[in-house]
Design goal:
mainly alpha; 0% strand
């Protein structure tokens, strides 16, 4: 009971709300700066950094490693690098992200799924901005993560760690905060919007000619376009069919960039069993 109560405290609604406020602020900063102080060179740099941050911070770190334990970081340096980049994505602490994602997999596209689409366009827009139903998340699904001292450290010190990079950029030039931090974060947020909304929409599946090569257990589907945009995470249906696989290319004989990188950064040869 003590451990369960500790988990509930660690997954506080207050921190989820702080993350949402940070995300909204970052969106507004990017939009305002692109209108008022547009810089093409910095835009390209920000998009490149966004792709890198999504690949390592979201796909390899928060998703394949922390949520699914599909890899084991090669050493402590790699582990801390992935935790740092995962923190910078502004998607919540490693434990918070994994709690939501594991619950999503356990109850995919059902009433118990915190990311499930409904007939309400207001609800679905909220999901696009990652306003998931946190009351549906069971803290027990991340009990293994709370036992990891280093993951727990990044959870407990999330905002202190998160703020270092943008503060340094601000001291150099406030505009750099937007282009080299906020813009890459927006890229990550849009990548997660693909995963939570587009990749589970039957209507959008028809628009983007999405495929379902492995199973019909939920509404997820694969997309070549989003695979290139988000470093292999476009193989969303393949991922749902094999959630413990870190390199989706091994399941569909296609190229998975983040999977190849995950293979390089992991000490294990093969992927782990899935964590739901």
């Amino acid at each position: 009971m003590t451990l369960f109560n500790d988990l509930k405290n660690k997954l506080s609604i207050a921190n989820y709300n702080r993350v949402r406020i940070a995300q909204a602020t970052i969106y507004l900063l990017v939009i305002a700066t692109l209108i008022i102080n547009f810089n093409f060179a910095l835009l390209i740099a920000g998009l490149i950094l966004g792709y890198i941050l999504f690949t390592l911070g979201v796909s390899v770190s928060l998703h394949k490693w922390i949520s699914h334990r599909a890899l084991d970081p090669r050493n402590r340096l790699v582990k801390h690098l992935l935790l740092l980049l995962g923190t910078m994505t502004t998607l919540g602490t490693p434990i918070e992200f994994a709690a939501g994602h594991r619950t999503h997999h356990k109850h995919s596209d059902t009433e118990q799924d915190p990311f499930a689409l409904t007939n309400s366009w207001i609800h679905n827009i909220k999901l696009w901005f990652l306003w998931m139903e946190t009351d549906k998340i069971n803290p027990r699904v991340v009990i293994d993560l709370v036992k990891d001292r280093e993951i727990k450290f990044y959870h407990n010190n999330y905002w202190k760690i998160w703020s270092v990079y943008p503060i340094i950029l601000f001291m150099v030039d406030p505009v750099l905060v937007v282009y080299l931090f906020a813009l890459p974060v927006v890229y990550c947020l849009l990548g997660m919007s693909w995963v939570t909304v587009i990749a589970h929409s039957e209507t959008l599946q028809r628009w983007f000619k999405g495929t379902k090569p492995h199973n019909e257990n939920d509404l997820s589907w694969d997309s070549v376009l989003f695979t290139w945009l988000f470093a292999g995470e476009g193989y969303h249906e393949t991922h749902h069919a094999y959630p413990g696989e870190r390199n989706y290319g091994k399941r569909n004989n296609k190229f998975d960039l983040s999977g190849e990188i995950a293979d390089l950064l992991s000490k294990r040869v093969s992927s782990a069993d899935s964590h739901l």
